[in-house]
Amino acid sequence: MTVIPAIDILGGECVRLVRGDYQEATVYERDPVAMARKFAEAGAKRIHVVDLDAARGDSRTNRKKIRKIRRAVDATIQLGGGIRRDEDIEELLDLGIDRLVIGTAFARKPEAVAGWVAHYGDVFLVGIDALDGVVRISGWEKETQHQDVDLAKRASEARVAGIIYTSIERDGTMEGPDIERTNAMADASGLPVILSGGIGSMDDLEAARTKSAKNVVGVIVGKAIYEGTVDLETVFRDVAATGVDEMTW
User: Residue 246: its pLDDT value, please?
Assistant: First the structure.
């Protein structure tokens, strides 16, 4: 299982939210590029980046930072937030982003994402973000009528590379991951799934590693790194925790 450190960018700064609440943003690092370098130096093979401004409709504020992150590290970069048009996809692929995380656009029009896969290739991950099983979109500020399991099945039909499943009620709380619900996504889709939300300790990482379904291939860690309860250098000393990122998901 690959451990994937997270960088959430808001107003050009590296922040963490609690359950997606923009009013509960804590700035941990003024320069996300410096944080990306720290992660890569610690041994990260893949880095998860979220453009929080773009998720709410402002796709311009953080583009320069994202470009600098891409130039600063050799790690695989998976980026989410506000990717809803062909122009967004083309710009980010031109920047060298390896994986594009599609959340809102997929919840609204799964068939359009299937068309993107056919046109642009195997570069998309579907982001399914749910509160009590109900999918939320637009920076988690809007509720949909979709159940997370139903969207997981649609993701399989769209032939995307994998799914990132975020338990909103756990995100930013460091209260432990929702392994059971993540496994349900894995079972429903048959795709590689990345667990996100709630990791607060090394024990949580071990629980995710030992109790997850076989196709749960990665786990995203954010606040626990910034708070010092998960040490990446310790994590990446273990080859099994580092994982091998072969770009198949």
Answer: 61
